[in-house]
Amino acid sequence: MINESEQQVRRSGLSRATHSLFAKFVIMLLVFLAVPALLYQEFRQADLDRQNIVLTAVREQGRLMAESLRPMLESADPSILLDLPEEIERIATKGNGIKVLFRPAGEEGVQGVFFVASEPRLSADELRKERETLVAQGVFDNLTASCLIERPMAIRHLRPSGIEELLTSMTAIRTDAGCWAVIATQSAEVFLGSSIGQPYWKTLEVQIAAAIYLGMALILTILVFTVWRDLMRFRDLARGIREGSVDKSSFMMSNKVPELEPVAHEFDRMTHTLRESSDSIRRAAEDNAHAFKTPLAIIRQALEPLNKTVENENKRGRRALQVVEEALDRLENLVSTARHLEHTSAELLNPPRENIDLSALLLRMLEAYNVSFSQQGVILQSSIDHEISVLAGEDMLETILENIIDNALEVSPRGTTVTVDLINGKKTAELAVRDRGPGVPESELERIFERYVSYRPKKGHQDCAGDMDQVVTASSSNHMGIGLWIVRRNVEAIGGYVRAENRQDGGLSIIVSLPQKGE
C-alpha cells in the first residue's frame, strides 16, 4: 500500500502540473493542433460531397456529347471523319470542350494513341504539345484500360495557350478499326476556387483560414513567451538581489509588460520592506545590547567594593555575592545571545553577498586560534585547498567558522586533535571539522542544530573521549545552545547545507557544503 507521504508527494506533483504555465502552454498547443485537424476532415468531406455533385453533372454532359459523336465514329465510311472537327465544334457548348483520341486495333502502349481532334481547335504544333502533356498526365495510360468502359476523372490540365481546364470524363467507343476515346473538358469557371483536381489544402479558402489560424497561434505564442520572458527577468533580478550582484535595479525597471506592473511594484515594495526590516533589526539589536550592557556594567562595578568589604568569614555574604556575579554572567550571556539571534535574523532577511576567499579567511582564523588550542592542550591540524571563493557575507562566514571550531575545542579532551579540512569540490566548498570529544547519540544528531539544544561533557569529564553518556542538554547547563543553530541558518541562507556525524573511532564531525562562486 502507498503510504501517506507518497500520496502527498503525488498530490503535490499533480497540483504542480495542473498549475504549471508550461503545462497549460502544451495543452493549448495540442488544442491548436487538434482543432484544425478535426475541422479540416469535416470540411474536406463536405467539399468531396460538393465535388461529387458538380462532377456528376458535368460528366453527364460529357457522356451525352460522346453519345452524340458515336454514330460518326462507328460509321464504316472513313470520309465522314473529315467532318469530325465541325461536329465536335457544334456539340461543344460554352464552357465545355472535347478531345478525341484514337488507338488503332492491334496497337499497344501510348505510342499507338493518336490525337485526332480538339475543341477549342489547336494548331499542329499545339496538338503535339497537347499530346505530350496528356501523356505526362497519364491520360493515354487510362485509354489502354478504358476502351470498354466509361471512365470518370478529375484532372487539371493546362492548354498550350496557358488556359487551365478540367478533364472530367473519358468515354470509350469500340469499333472494328480500333478504340475511340472522347474526353470531356470543362473551363476554369466550373472549378475555380474549388479543390476539384487538387488536394483540398491547396484551395484558397483553406490557405486563408490556415494563415489566419497560424497568425492567431503566433500572436498567442508571442504573448505567452513575453510573459514567460518577463517572469524570467523577475527570477534573474530576484537572484541578483539575493546574491548581491545587483544594487539599484528594480522589478519595475525590468518589466516590459504593462499588465505585470502591479506585480513588479509589489515585488519592489516587498524587497524594500525586507531591506528596511533587516536594517531595523540590526539597529534594534545594537541598541538593545547597548541598553542592557550599561546597567550590567554599573552593577558589576558596584560589586567590586562589596567584594573588598565583605570578609571571607562572612559565608552568607560571600555566597550572596557569588550568586549575584553568576547571575550577571548569565545575564550578559543572554544579552549576547539575543544580539546574535537578532543579527542572524537580519542577515537571513537580507543576506550580504560578496566574493569571499574562504581559503584565506579560514587560514587567518586558524592562525588566531593557535593560542586558544595551546592553552587547552588540544592539537590543531588543518588541510586547506587554496583559492576557494564563495558568495556570502564575511561576518556570516566568520560566525559559521567560529561556532563550529569553538564547539570542537570545548568538547575536545587535552592531548587530542581537532582537524579542519577545506576541500575544493568543483561546484562546492566542503568544510569538515572533526574532534575527539564524546560525540552525540545517533538519535540526536539532527537535534543539535535546533535552538537551545546543546550537548557538552559534564564538568570534570572533558577527558572522557568517546563516553557518550557524559553529555547534558542546554536546559541544565550554562550553554545557550544556539551556536550550531546559527550555523545551520547561516549556511542555508548562503545556499549550502550542514550535517553532523559521529566518527567511528570516537568524536564528532561537522561537515559544511557551500556553493562556490558562479554555481
UniProtKB/TrEMBL annotation:
One of its GO terms (molecular function) is phosphorelay sensor kinase activity. It catalyses: ATP + protein L-histidine = ADP + protein N-phospho-L-histidine. It comes from the Bacteria. The lineage of its organism: Bacteria, Pseudomonadati, Pseudomonadota, Alphaproteobacteria, Rhodospirillales. It is a multi-pass membrane protein. Residues 307-344 form a coiled coil. Keywords: ATP-binding, Cell membrane, Coiled coil, Kinase, Membrane, Nucleotide-binding, Phosphoprotein, Transferase, Transmembrane, Transmembrane helix. The keyword Phosphoprotein applies. Residues 287-518 form the Histidine kinase domain. Its EC number is 2.7.13.3. One of its GO terms (cellular component) is plasma membrane. CDD domains: HATPase (cd00075). The chain crosses the membrane at residues 21-40, 208-228. This is histidine kinase. The keyword Nucleus does not apply. InterPro entries: 2C_sensor_his_kinase, HATPase_C_sf, HATPase_dom, His_kinase_dom, HisK_dim/P_dom, HisK_dim/P_sf, Sig_transdc_His_kin-like_C. It comes from Kiloniella litopenaei. It is found in: Cell membrane.
